[in-house]
Prior knowledge:
The complex is a heterodimer.
Chain A: E1 4-6, E2 9-11, E3 15-18, H1 25-35, E4 39-43, H2 55-62, E5 67-71, H3 78-92, E6 96-99, H4 112-124, E7 128-133, H5 137-145, E8 152-153, H6 167-176, E9 183-185, H7 191-199, E10 204-207, H8 209-212, H9 217-237
Parallel strand pairs in A: 3-4, 3-10, 4-5, 6-7, 7-8, 9-10
Antiparallel strand pairs in A: 1-2
Chain B: H1 3-7, E1 11-15, H2 19-30, E2 34-38, H3 49-52, E3 56-57, H4 59-63, H5 68-91, E4 100-101, E5 105-109, H6 114-128, E6 135-138, H7 139-145, E7 154-158, E8 162-164, H8 166-179, E9 183-185, H9 192-197, E10 205-208, E11 222-233, E12 243-246, E13 251-256, E14 261-265, H10 279-292, E15 300-312, E16 318-324, E17 327-333, H11 339-360
Parallel strand pairs in B: 1-2, 1-10, 2-9, 5-12, 10-17
Antiparallel strand pairs in B: 3-8, 4-8, 5-7, 6-7, 11-14, 11-15, 12-13, 13-14, 16-17
Amino acid sequence: MGNFTLYGETFNSRFLLGTALYPSPQIMRDAITASECDIVTLGLRRQNPSEQDGAAIWDFIKDSGCKLLPNTAGCKSAKEAITLAEMSREIFDTEWIKLEVIGDDYNLQPDPYGLIEAAAELIKKGFKVLPYTTDDLIVAQKLLDAGCEVIMPWGAPIGTGQGLMNKYNLRTLRERLPDTPLIIDAGLGAPSQAAEAMEMGFDGVLLNTAVAKAQTPPQMAKAFAQAIDAGRNAFEAGLMVQKETASPSTPVIGQPFWHSK
Amino acid sequence: MTNSASQHSSRIAILGAGLLGRLSAWQLLEAGQQVSLYEAGSFEQSPSAARTAAAMISPLSEVVASEREIYNLGLRSLQIWPEWIQSLNKALPDHPPVQYDATGSVVVAHPQDRTELQQFHRDLEGKLGSKQNSKPLNQSQITKLEPALAHFNEGLYLPDEAYLDNRQLLDNLLQRIRTLGGKCHEHTPIELDDLANNKTIDADTILDCRGMGAKKETSQPLRGVRGEVMWVECPEVKLTHPVRLMHPRYKLYVVPKGNDRYIIGATEIESEDLSNISLQSSMELSSALYTLNPAFAEARIIETDVNLRPAFMDNLPHTAEYKIGDTNVIQINGLYRHGYLLAPAVLEQTLNKFSKTETTHDQLS
């Protein structure tokens, strides 16, 4: 499969996994192993980060050997997200940040205005920003203008498992931003949905709930990894164009003519 | 705990006067052993998570987000608790008895979150098969069970669940331990490292029940998981069962604690921060309560509490046994959010093993 490069770093896996909501840290680690992912996200939001109060769990995640992608989950303003990003940079020693600015508390819909504002500011401060956004083309363009090199549009609101809700918008994003790495972030519930996103040409998939809330998270992590690989292979191999009429895959040459219509 | 153990009484030091420490001290004293109980804090204002907990014995609700082992141990605890509490209450006729209620619990969700209820039910079936006996409830069944929740039109009833008055239990256990001649030392922190160097405790066996207090001395990494709870008083609302409210992000419960008091909990945050409850958490807890019944708006907040659940990375309890010199050391830890659910079953296993160690010096894993 072709390279997967983000901010100049190349990764083997196109699967990014979240580390929240698992029944135990051990099951989370088992899921990371089964997913064979190279990047995991983690949030500081509800700890008291300046005191390093969550250190035990962070070390446990670090020990997985994956690249850490801290997020600003739960932040509701640009200012809050910037502060948290700076703390994350200090604690995890990384400029990478998955930027979330939430506009609606119930469905956790991104706030595009706060997102663009925070992204611009963080890029000025030297961050490598991976913004979680809706499937809106203009917002994506403004994020690129601000200096983001990766865009992470949602499939559906976080945790809903609805899959790719607006394929038209997603297809538009893909077609209009052909050279930008696009990662579907949030809303996927089934491996088939992840495969579909990859078949459409998206560069990667980031998810959490669908794996963490499965009855056997490591097995579900593996299922998603396989689906993401399958979807990518299919995209690279080139999908056939759907046709209105049937065309037999076995040659009809041997059949007597009077059998045809 | 067996009769053979009481044939020759041994000297046992118990570290930590939380739930495990008190229960094991009491049980060992009843079995005729000599017990000394050491607590780093004070007995009355113990820093133990046992005092903060809502003290539900809820194997069904907990299995959804944990492992089958938790459920099996929980079912055993459901059998042991009533016997233990009955015998404790009988032994202390002049004390307020410990209340124990085993009439089951109720799970509800608001209409917009009904898929959370479906997921909960599916996970129960997935973990336990169809023979688990949760019962779907419609509006009239909910109304009959808990009139204060009449506006919910969907729910679940979990019959095999109980709760108890943990603060009375902790007080009565200490009283009983003292009556039985247990030596109680508060403000006496003990570290196993110190023991290895200079023997400050004279005991045949040390039972380490320190929870977070043992953090530096457990055989595998122990972490604290922050939990925040709120106590309210509200005569206008009568709930008689523990109630769980399903929500996409919060799994909150309300447990009646007698005298119109309720405990609402609990947040679950991967942090060892012990500072006061945050505004966000208090809003989550309050709004969950308010949506159960708007009359809770007039409740008075009488207490908030924060504590750490001692947990291993697999969120399962573990026992370790080894020797320091001639002294047997048994460490029990990692009961996580399941202290009252697991304590009797875990202790039963450990104390059985322990009396074997005492009499035969078997090496047990």
